[in-house]
Amino acid sequence: MCGDTRIRLIEPADAAAIAEHRARDVEAFRPWEPLQPSDFFTPQGQAERIDGLLAKHRDGVVWPGVVLADDRVIGQVTVGGILPQPHLRRGSLGYWIGSVAQNQGHAGRAVGLALRVMADELGLHRVEASTNLENLSSQRVLRRNGFSPYGVAHSSILLDGSWRDGLLWERILGD
Predict the structure, then answer these.
(1) Contact 8, 64 (CB under 8 A)
(2) 5-125: CATH topology
(3) Which tens digit of pLDDT belongs to each residue from 65-89?
(4) Which of 30, 88, 129, 157 is the most buried (most CB within 10 A)?
């Protein structure tokens, strides 16, 4: 599964594919993400989550996307916390790629495409992201897309039963 990488706005029909990835990869993502309720890993749970994301999209505070390879959903890329006011034109970027499509460049290309959406469609000026200190793969993706680390958020996220520090990243769009 190495085809072209694309992103598009998430759709309700994506629920089953996302649930399949998330159920298969629960152990692989355990070090990087908070625990989720069991329904998160079901098509119904993902359908409800997608409905919520699309409602927030209509409100202008989230741009929820899926990552595609050969027209198959392989992950997600989400711009959250969108602040479109003239003096606060920023958003926060998150992403994941299913294990069956990792290490093929999809994450880096998806982040690059999301940066274009943020600049061209959303009119944002600043992008922020956060990674676990040990998540070197995600840090490489951000670095290759022009992000710079700017600080550490101490004890900022509960992962696998322990509070962990997050490495904070930023990029000014247009630079």
Answers:
(1) no
(2) Aminopeptidase (3.40.630)
(3) 999 999 999 999 999 999 878 778 9
(4) 129
